[in-house]
Design brief:
Blueprint: E1 2-10, E2 13-20, E3 29-37, H1 40-47, H2 52-58, E4 61-62, E5 66-73, E6 84-87, E7 90-91, E8 109-110, E9 123-125, E10 130-132, H3 138-141, H4 144-160, E11 167-171, H5 175-187, E12 192-197, H6 200-203, E13 211-214, E14 226-229, H7 235-246, E15 252-255, H8 267-273, E16 276-279, H9 285-295, H10 298-304, E17 308-310, H11 317-327, E18 333-337
Parallel strand pairs: 11-12, 11-14, 12-13, 14-15, 15-16, 17-18
Antiparallel strand pairs: 1-2, 1-4, 3-5, 3-9, 3-18, 5-6, 6-10, 7-8
Helix pairs in contact: 4-5, 4-9
Amino acid sequence: MLNQVFQLVRPKNIMIKYEDISVNQNDRVLVRPFYMALCHADQRYFQGKREPSILAKKLPMALIHESCGIVVSDPTKTFSVGQKVVMIPNQPPEASGEIFYENYMKGTKFLSSGFDGFMQEVVQLPPDRLVKYDDIDDTVAVISEFVSVAAHAVERFNCISHPVREQVAIIGDGSLSYVTATVLNALFPEIKITVIGRNHEKLSMFNFVDKTYLTSEIPEDFSFDHAFECCGGAGSEYAIDDIIKYIKPQGTVILMGVSDNKIAVNTRDILEKGLTVVGSSRSGRADFETAVNIMANKRLQNRFKNIIFEDKPVQNINDIYRVFDTDLTTSFKTIFKWEV
């Protein structure tokens, strides 16, 4: 079978690579992507906002690591033809164990980061890299990878932080903060969540948390037990500073925002307060299963829809260029139907 792979060969330039794939490969499931979602990482590659040495190493490469699809062939007989599934971009050498998570294992491959992502006519994956769904709108299922990242961070928080969890702060008012707050609230409804950000309109969307504050209006006597940093970029430095200032001693800080450049961190106060700082990145199969379970809740599906903008379907390369341009003008997640 001849497959079309839409590869980014250099910034803002996509070309089609044709490759033969075997429909009879006994350990692979053939999936046709149905919906896709854009991530900031995809956008940075497309716009050429990574170091030239990184682009030279990773391109050409098909983008997109957030997608749901429909099974068209499964020699493993794990799924029925027509079953809707979400696809896991993390390709580890082995599954998560009792101690080590698959997304941090040496030798793990991540699709759309040095390896072709889901922007293909069809995708072949091992059955354990797929999670089925039935009762989730496709426009929500498509962000399952994004939700799984938050699920993984909350899992790390649950395993590492001390049991006093009355107040948790989330720093940031973007889509990552919104999804993390939703997942934390779903799994630990007894925890009081405070979201701190810089945009009043975005903060108004967090109507399901206990409190929201603008960074310029945080009360001096404010405090919390643990925190999630969801800013990334240069904003990480200010977010971490605020966390260190207001967090109670021996709290846990979960870092989720990606910073391409080094930032300054106040280690003196981290030591003085005895804080635990945890890096959390990507996700594994267990996190996808948690995400799918959460998204099956109709009330939470509607909540996730608040951060989704659906662009027109993509049918050719020009449409791909259009959707990347559209994404630059949206505040949250851009999704689109894949109709190549």
